[in-house]
Amino acid sequence: MPYFDAASSAPLHPVARQALLAALDEGWADPARLYREGRRARLLLDAAREAAADAVGVRPDELTFTSSGTRALHDGIAGALAGRRRAGRHLVHSAVEHSAVLHAAAAHEAAGGTVAEVPVDRAGRVAPGAYAAALRAAPGPTALACLQSANHEVGTRQPVAEAAAECAEAGVPLLVDAAQSLAFGPVPGDWSLLTASAHKWGGPSGVGLLAVRKGVRFAPQGPADERESGRAPGFENIPAVLAAAASLRAVREEAAAEAERLRELVDRIRARVPRLVPDVEVVGDPERRLPHLVTFSCLYVDGEALLHELDRAGFSVSSGSSCTSGTLTPSHVLRAMGVLSEGNVRVSLPLGTAEEDVERFLAVLPDVVRGVRGRLGAPERAEEATAASAGSASGDSGVSAGPAGSAGPGAGGPGAGGPGDEEAELVVDSLGKLCPIPVIELAKVIGEVPVGGLVTVLADDEAARLDIPAWCAMRGHTYEGERPADRGTAYRVRRRA
C-alpha cells in the first residue's frame, strides 16, 4: 500500500533501524557514569551529537537532543524569550508556522507578552522585507522572531536567509523550524536557533533537535537539570538519538539524487491532477518548494470522505480540510493563504517512492473524486450552464428570492444588470451545513439570477469564508464580501459568467 504522508512521519530508514538495534545492546547505560558501560554510552551519545551538528551546521556543544520536535520548539521559544526578557517581550512569527509555534505564542501572550503575525501571499510565502517591516511596527523591542524553513502543509520554502539578515540588522534572533526541510540540506542564513524532528526524515519518533548558536541569550525554563546542558531534562534515549543521527546522515547522502527524482514525480502530479480532475486548485509555490510535497483542493468534495476512499483504494494521504480535522475551523495555513480548503489533499512522497505508485494514484484519483461528488449531489459545469439558461424556479428548499433579510439589503453597483434593471438576488440558507455543502448549494442556484445578479449564502461553517471566495475565483464570478447575519454570516456573490 503506497504511503504518501511522509510530511507527517516518514517510514523508519533502514540505517535508523540498524543503528537502533545495535545501540540497544551498547547504549543502555548512564552516559554520565565513569565505568565502562557509561563511557561506552557517552561515546555513542557524543558521536550522535557530532553527526547531527554537522548536518545542521553548528558546533556539537550548540546542539541539544529533546524528546520531540514540538518539545524543541516550545523549549527554544521559551528559552529565547526568557533570555531576552530585558530586551523586550514581543514575539514575531509567520501566519503559517506549525501549530506548536502558535501554541507557544498564545502562551507567551497569555503571560503578558505581545505577538505579531507576518502575513503570507497566496502561495504561502513571506514577502521580502516582511520581517523587517514587522520589527519596525512592533509596539516595543522584539525578543524573538520565528520562521519555518518550509511549510508542512503546502511545501512552500520560506526566504530564511533574507529574514535572518533582516532580523540580524535589527538585533533580533531568528528561530527556524527546519522539521520539513532538514533531510534535503542545511538551512542557509545567519539564523540564531533551529529545531527539527527525527521522525520527519526517517529517524525514530521521540527525538527532536534544538540548536542554539553561541552568543544567543538563552535561559532554559523549568527546574534545572544537569543533562543536555540543562536544556532538556531527563535521561537521554541514546539508542533513539543514535538512530536519528545515523539516519539523518544517510538521508543527506541520498538527498541530492532522490530530491531530483521526487521533484519530477511531484511535477507530474501538479501538472496532471488539474487535467484529470475538474475544479481543482493546486496550492503552494510551484517553484520554491520542497521536492516531495504537493497539495491540491477539490471543489464540491468532503475531505474526510475523499481520504477514506483513497485509503480504500490503497493510498495513505493527509489533508488540511476542516472536515477532516474534527473541527469547524479550516487549516490555519490554508486560511492565511486564502485558498480553497474543501477537498484538500496533501501528497508527500517518502524516499524511494516508485514511479508506478504515482501513476496508479493518478489513475485512481478521478474516479474517487467523481464518486464523492456524486454522493454529495455536486453539480457539473454543464449542469450549471443548463440551470443558467433555463432559469429554473427558485422554490427549492433553502433558496428564496428577494432581499437577503437579516443579511442586509441587496447591494447594487456597477455591472449589476443593465441600465434600469432591478437587482436580482437569491438567498441560500446553508446554516448548520458543513463544507462543502454551502458551496454546492451556491453552485446549483447561480444560474437562477441574470448576469449581474446577486446570490447571498447564509452559512455558519468557518470554511465558507475561504471556499466561497475561492469558488468565485475559479468560476469567474465576483465575491462582494461578507456581512453579519442574525445567525452565521452572509456571503455575497455577483454572477459574472
Task: Describe the structure in your own words.
The protein has 497 residues and is an alpha/beta fold. The chain is 38% helix and 15% strand. It is built from 13 helices and 15 strands. It has a seven-stranded mixed beta sheet, with helices on both faces. Helix 1 packs antiparallel against helix 7 and helix 2 packs parallel to helix 7 (238-276).
Name the poorly predicted regions. Answer: 382-397, 404-421
SS elements, strand count:
15
Summed up, the helix count is 13
Strand order of the largest sheet: 1-7-6-5-4-2-3
Distance between the termini: 43 Å
- The residue-averaged pLDDT reads 89
Instruction: Please tell me how large the radius of gyration is.
Output: 26 Å
Content of β-strand? 15-25%
Derived structural class: alpha/beta
Portion in helices: 25-40%
Instruction: Give the helices and strands as they follow along the chain.
Output: HHEHEHEHEHEEEHEEHHEHHEEHEHEE
Shape: globular
> Strand count, sense and closure of the main sheet?
7 strands, mixed
Secondary structure topology:
Blueprint: H1 14-26, H2 36-56, E1 63-66, H3 69-83, E2 90-94, H4 99-110, E3 114-118, H5 130-136, E4 142-148, H6 160-170, E5 174-177, E6 193-197, E7 208-212, H7 238-276, E8 280-283, E9 293-298, H8 303-312, H9 332-337, E10 344-348, H10 355-376, H11 381-390, E11 399-401, E12 425-429, H12 437-445, E13 454-459, H13 464-475, E14 478-484, E15 489-494
Parallel strand pairs: 2-3, 2-4, 4-5, 5-6, 12-13
Antiparallel strand pairs: 1-7, 6-7, 8-9, 9-10, 11-12, 13-15, 14-15
Helix pairs in contact: 1-7, 2-7, 3-4, 5-6, 7-10, 8-10
